[in-house]
Each structure stands twice: as C-alpha cells, then as structure tokens.
Amino acid sequence: MTARSRAQSFDVAAAQYAASRPSYPPALFDCIEEFTGCRLAGVRVADVGAGTGIATALFGERGADVIAVEPGEAMAAAFRQAHPDVPIVRGDANALPLAEASRDLIAYAQSWQWTDTTRSVPEALRVLRPGGALAIWWNTTAFDVPWIREQHERIAHHCGVKPRSAVRPSDSDAIRLAGLTGLRVARRQVRWSRTVSLDTHLANIGSRSAFLVLDRADRGAFFADERERLSRAFPGEAVEETYVVDLLVAARP
Predict the structure, then answer these.
(1) What is the pTM assigned to this prediction?
(2) C-alpha span between 69 and 73 (Å, rounded)
(3) Residue 156 located in a structural domain
C-alpha cells in the first residue's frame, strides 16, 4: 500500500473523520503566535490538507484570514458544508494553488507526512511572504499512558506496521525527519486531553489511514475485540484520550 493510497483513503470516511477526530488545544495557537512574534488576528493563513476544517475553524476563531487547501473531493465537500463562508481550493502541498508571497503563515495539521518534502518545502517558501512561517503539527501518542501505549501496539500489530518508538526524537532529528534542515525552526510539545464516548473513540481510531485501507471484515474483527476490551477498562464508556501535540514552526529565510 503506497503512501498516496493511504493519503487518499480519508475521502471514504469524511463524515466519520469530521465527527470523531480530536481538535487542538488553545495552547498550540499560543505557541504559534509566540514563535512567529505576532497575533493571529488578521494574519493571512493557508491551511493545507485542511480535511474537514478542524484547524481552519480554530484559526478563524483567532481572527485569522484563512484559505483552505484540500486534495480530497469528499473531504472538501464536508468542509464546504461545515464552513460555507471559508474559501477552499482543491490542491496539495506539493503544488500549492496559491500565488507567490501571498500568505503570512502556512499550516499543515496532521498532513505534512503525506507530502514530498523536496517539493512541499520549496512550495511553502514560494507562497510565504518575507517574514512568514510554516507550521506543522501532529496529535501524537502519549506513550506514558499505559492503556494508550498498549492500544497503539495492538493497532500496529493488526495493521502490519511497526509500532512507533516510545522515545520521541530530539529536536535536531525531528527537524531532519520533517525535511526542514537548513531553516530556523522552533519546536514545542503541548500535552492535552479530551473525554469522549467509547463510540467516538473507536470511530476516531477507525478514521486513521491504517484502518481505512483494510477490508471491512478485517476492521470489524479488530473493533469488536477493542470494544469489549475497553468496555471493561472504562465501565462508564467515557474514554479519556491523551495527546501530545508536536509542533514545528519554520521561519522563511
């Protein structure tokens, strides 16, 4: 299964994605303002790989002037339904459909890993105005929470992928892995949590690309077992999900 196929898989689960995926904490946007040295109000932002608009909406709440870029047809349709007043264009990070030096900030929430950094980094720099910045972040696994670490290992085993290391990469390794070597980059990790129903938790997991590319029977078997296991761990079926947002902000040279 190619990375492109996995990236395109989200289109089949746009409604599930919109209903179950976690948002991002206010502290994340405080960090972006701190690193860029300016408030987001009035800042021209491009939210690339916007999906159903989770990050776009949060930028809008801060008063930013946002345009969304999304490659998936179904995801873009869900975005338009949820955010009819926010402009959205079809395209991806490797060939941004945006004018040169037209944006102050380009954001990639959960989407940077689907890009070819040999193309997406130059594209971001082309579209950013002098003094602008690109921000990339992910809600990452809180490995210090035992049940979350154990679930991560079960998911990796079922989907046939290698579990992530519980040791987070150093700042220099994170910058290198993100393809941002040579740029001035700031990093911050923000811990946060949300409490959701068991149904929402399972739907969130099921909206990940590793599951979306599996056949229905294979997915069903995993989630039947996982529901039974978590029902015992959370008798009230209220699940506290803990995340660590890993944020990198790179300044345009």
Answers:
(1) 0.91
(2) 11
(3) no
Q: Give alpha helix (H) positions in the chain.
A: 3-8, 14-20, 26-36, 54-61, 73-82, 117-127, 146-159, 171-177, 198-206, 209-212, 216-233
DSSP β-ladder status, 128-141 and 238-251: antiparallel
CATH code of the domain covering residue 56 = 3.40.50.150
> What pLDDT is attached to residue 11?
63
Residue 23 lies in a domain: yes
Do residues 242 and 193 touch, judged by C-beta distance below 8 A? yes
Q: Which domain holds residue 62?
A: 3-141+167-193+242-251
| First-to-last C-alpha distance (Å) of the chain | 36
Which tokens in the block code for residue 177?
């892995």
Q: Cα(175)–Cα(177) distance, rounded to whole angstroms?
A: 6
Q: Which of 130, 241, 243 is nearest to 195 (CA)?
A: 241
* 20-to-50, 142, 150, 203 alpha-carbon distances in Å: 15, 18, 21, 6
**pLDDT tens profile 143-196:** 999 999 999 999 999 888 889 899 999 999 999 999 999 999 999 999 999 999
